[in-house]
């Protein structure tokens, strides 16, 4: 999989997270904060091999950019 950097949270300092990438497979990769809130996780059905990350609303602008 080849990743193309799309955008980084402008308020992330110094960690550089969250970050959004576009793949060469027609999908997105999102780097974000680990969700470890047990109540939130209990509301989701996350299969083996998957995970979830949290990103702030301000990151949505990067997903709305033109697709490669």
List keywords for this structure.
single chain; 68 residues; alpha+beta; three-stranded antiparallel sheet; two-stranded antiparallel sheet; 28% strand; globular
List the helices and strands and how they pair.
Blueprint: E1 3-8, E2 19-23, E3 28-31, E4 33-34, H1 38-42, E5 53-54, H2 60-63
Antiparallel strand pairs: 1-2, 2-3, 4-5
**What's the total number of strands?**
5
Biggest β-sheet: strands ordered side by side in the sheet:
1-2-3
Q: Helical region count? A: 2
Structural class: alpha+beta
Low-confidence stretches: none
What's the domain count?
1
Question: Multimeric state of these chains?
Answer: single chain
Structural overview:
The chain is an alpha+beta fold and 68 residues long. It has one domain (3-38, 51-63). The protein has 2 helices and 5 strands. It has helices at residues 38-42, 60-63; strands spanning 3-8, 19-23, 28-31, 33-34, 53-54. The strands form 2 sheets. The chain has a 3-stranded antiparallel sheet, with no helix packed on it. Strands 4-5 form a two-stranded antiparallel ribbon. A hairpin with a 4-residue loop joins strand 2 (19-23) and strand 3 (28-31). The protein is globular, with a radius of gyration of 13 Å. The two termini are 14 Å apart.
